Amino acid sequence: MSVPLPASPAPAPSPYHAWVRPIGQASFWLSLLLTVYFLLQALLLWPLHGTAAWQALAGAAVAHQVHSMAWLLAHPVAASMIAALYCLVSTLASHGLLRERRWGMWSFVAMLMLSALANFAIAAWLDLFMREVIPLLTDDIGVQHELRVKRLLFTLTLLGTSLLLLGLQGWLGWRLLRPDIRARFR
Fold it and tell me: What is the pTM of this model?
């Protein structure tokens, strides 16, 4: 009498799920969390932006010609809603990626590239903000010089990080657009 052979193991899952699904899930949950955060921030700012203290702060930004902050202080709810909308679009793109939809893959790649470019815009905005604020912090030329050096180092760090993220996000987008991965999306 012969002993029956054990059943062959189930086939290994596709390598597609080895890296696309966790990225889609992480992006989905982070984007959803940030959407909720920015909506709550808008709800909190709605009553605050009409207060005398807030108006004084917005007026001081205009009076001191801190143009990089003037619009944000004048329209905090709109700024929060724009950020929430961007995060909501990212949430939907991540959901489409998770469901293996072609539109999800393409929109996810578009969001990758848009956020990579946004990093450079934010770095430039922060540099402009610091340029406008440093002269307001002190009249001492030595301290201003030190702050300008720190601003330059901070900006270079942000630009380097933005360049690194552009490379990583570009690589991820390229990987998603490979024919073997693209074929999984319908």
Answer: 0.82
